[in-house]
Amino acid sequence: MTSAELAKCMDTNPVVVRRTMAGLREAGFVSSEKGHGGGWEIACDLQKVTLRDIYDALGSPSLLAIGINLENPECLVEKAVNRSLTGAFADAEALLVKRLAGVTLAALAEEFRATARRHRTRMSR
Amino acid sequence: MTSAELAKCMDTNPVVVRRTMAGLREAGFVSSEKGHGGGWEIACDLQKVTLRDIYDALGSPSLLAIGINLENPECLVEKAVNRSLTGAFADAEALLVKRLAGVTLAALAEEFRATARRHRTRMSR
DNA sequence: TATCACGCATCATCTAATGTTACATGACAC
DNA sequence: GTGTCATGTAACATTAGATGATGCGTGATA
């Protein structure tokens, strides 16, 4: 599929698609071809790649909305909060990453197909 | 303390302090007095109130940076991801809330005092 | 050689959070 | 009572990060 097609599918624009896919390409999960007939193609074993791999390929951004503020290391109140919660944040993030690792792209594809089957059945009623 | 004093302490401004403290006041954790000599005062038992209570008083905002996108319920890919990860997000958030509930304000105050002691010792060397 | 599609730098827009201003209200001191 | 101080709140301004858009270069195909 081309970036333009993908962009239409997810209601965004081609450049944003390229920006995001760039990480996946560097990780080897997709490949891209320039020129006439070019576009994006899956380049990995869906059974082997998990959402954790995708997460890492996209730069492993923080999964938590709040976190430790390290900008004012001299603030004693902040330090007290940090000491009390650093472990909790780390544990929660680790838990999430672990769950991401439990979902392969193949499993997602199967989920998709199952939903699509239900969808078609409902439509044909 | 007045909102202006608190604002100076945390490098923000009085109105933002009032906005935030409003939630804590409604929950009964602090009280405020208008007029001359007014300001904010703690109005709860530090042993009994936890960071979870504070979190709830502030409106229980999402603790996760990413989450389930419910805006396009007809997107089958999105649905597949949601089915696969909803539990993980819920578990991670529950874990965090549990840890917040394990930290009383009294414990935070004690952490603060301990750090302050170390701070003074280092200063006097 | 014309067309198509990605790669990428640059700039524009949008949005949520934060900061600011203004004014009303209540409390205390004199 | 009147001046001062502080909160309560609405309305507006600013900021920062994400997202979107444009332009141009490069490679591939017909």
Provide structural commentary.
The structure is a homodimer. Chain A is mostly helical. Chain A has two domains: about 1-45, Winged helix-like DNA-binding domain superfamily/Winged helix DNA-binding domain (Arc Repressor Mutant, subunit A), CATH 1.10.10; about 45-125, no CATH class. Helices cover about 60% and strands about 5% of the residues of chain A. In chain A, strands 1-2 form a two-stranded antiparallel sheet. In chain A, helix 1 crosses helix 2. The longest helix of chain A has 26 residues, at about 75-100. Chain A is extended and about 60 Å long. The mean pLDDT of chain A is about 95. Chains A and B meet through helix 4 and helix 5 of A and helix 4 and helix 5 of B. Chain A binds a DNA duplex (30 and 30 nucleotides) through helix 2.
List the helices and strands and how they pair.
The structure is a homodimer of 125-residue chains.
Chain A: H1 3-9, H2 14-26, E1 30-33, E2 39-42, H3 51-57, H4 76-101, H5 105-124
Antiparallel strand pairs in A: 1-2
Helix pairs in contact in A: 1-2, 3-4
Chain A binds a DNA duplex (30 and 30 nucleotides) through helix 2.
Number of strands of chain A: 2
- Tell me the distance between the termini of chain A: 32 Å
Of all protein chain pairs, which has the greatest interface, and how many residues does each chain bring to it?
Answer: A-B, 38 and 38 residues
Estimated radius of gyration of chain A = 20 Å
